[in-house]
Amino acid sequence: MTRRKPAAAILFFVLPFGLLFIAFYLAPIGYAIKQSLYKVTRTGTFGPAREVFGGLEQYQRVFENGPFWSSIGRVLLFGVVQVPVMLGLALLLALLLDSGLVRGRAFFRLAFFVPYAIPGVIAAIMWGFLYSPNLSPFTAVTKTWDLLSADLVLWAMANVVTWVYVGYNMLIIYSALLAIPQEVYEAATLDGAGPIRTAWSVKIPLVMPAIVLTTVFSIIGTLQLLAEPQVFRTFSSAVSSTYTPNLTVYSTSSIPNFNLAAAFSVVLALATCVLSFAFLKVTQRGADK
């Protein structure tokens, strides 16, 4: 009887999470995979639509879809440039807050985090108006450089994402810095390390797990980019309905072609998992050396 009680307690605490995990994570994934294996056919030109099993036909269409793979390449380029810049700024701000150089840390923590509290759509609309040559208060800049042109609109969106998420990532890294024992800093000081040397040789290596975590989150978020390009479509003709993978999924489901959209989603989810796990493997190998 004493052995059954811990098992019952574990089941009591795990069951709510398990049910929610199945209902809101595994079930939608399973439904998307099921939908991707079907196709819609019609009898004649104006016959009623019927959903029949199509096997891997939708996936064949995904791999033959040039705009979709172009959008994947576009967000990968976006991530290669934007993610290091964003996390570099987040790390710098976290180190500054953790140093003795900044007064009013509570105020600056809140100030850096406030952009993350603004919904992504609202932030994109706000920056879209700032970028618009006819609406922006900074006309000297927007008329010299068309930030909504085909060449610059991707980086204009990168600026929005960076502005929103720097504070969020900064808090994660800053929390890791606060967890470092004070004795470590005292030992570094006794060894003659100054503030910069301490930050480079002590703080950054010890918060590397937090940096890896924020990088994984950023990789996932990059491939899921949707709100910014969807809003920027109203400001710039350079942003098409297939500009990012998630926008392609959204546009395809709006046709509506739910089966093809489900296949796009499954392939995008697999690509996200592969990139995230590949990055984790690379960082783990580096840590083991």
UniProtKB/TrEMBL annotation:
Protein's GO biological process: transmembrane transport
Protein name, as recorded: Sugar ABC transporter permease
Protein's UniProt keywords contain Methyltransferase: no
SUPFAM superfamilies named among the record's database cross-references: MetI-like
Coiled coil: none
Family that this chain belongs to: Belongs to the binding-protein-dependent transport system permease family.
A GO CC term assigned to this protein in UniProt: plasma membrane
Family annotation (InterPro entries): MetI-like, MetI-like_sf, UgpAE/MalFG_permease
Domain called ABC transmembrane type-1: residue spans: 72-279
Tree of life domain: Bacteria
Lipid bilayer topology: Multi-pass membrane protein
